[in-house]
């Protein structure tokens, strides 16, 4: 039996260099709401769904966070990210990796825990047109990472079984989601998580960034 591999990519920290801009945007939003949280604690939560993010926030700060406040936080974050994302660029090798997959007729899609209001900036930086490429955002599924819904929806858009998917992400939330839907998790260090944590969360391979993944594409089934 021939297995035709497809690639599903996370966006922030995986294809674009945007993790720290997101962290600082959340920091601004939380400051504005008078919620004290250290920057490193925010970083640990980037890549998970907004709902889980606020639940964790609730646990760590002991604050009551009502739906209106959650909504305000999301708006403040999106506003701040809109400003900070001006400096966001693709990670090394990201554009070349996507081009190589396309040229070799290996289907790929993007699945991000972010909403289109923030993802749109990154897609522009990456030169990806969501009208041409399947892009699944938080707006389109009930639960975001570490639930597998985003990746399942992305695989469905490619008409591919999830077991044939190589799921590339920079956070432990991507790897947990990959494991939960039985895709093959591949970790990148370009979002700031370490090799050990990514492996412990299910990454079968870990590379520095998209450029290094491109060099080793044949190791994960991306035959040219
Ligand atoms: Mg990410």
UniProtKB/TrEMBL annotation:
Any one Gene Ontology molecular-function term assigned to this protein's record: hydrolase activity
InterPro entries: HAD-like_hydrolase_sf, HAD-like_sf, HAD-SF_hydro_IA, HAD_sf, PGP-like_dom2
UniProt-listed Enzyme Commission number(s): 3.-.-.-
Hydrolase found in the keyword field: yes
UniProt keywords, alphabetically: Hydrolase
Keyword Amino-acid biosynthesis annotated: no
Top-level taxonomic group: Bacteria
Descriptive protein name: HAD family hydrolase
Origin organism lineage: Bacteria, Pseudomonadati, Pseudomonadota, Alphaproteobacteria, Hyphomicrobiales
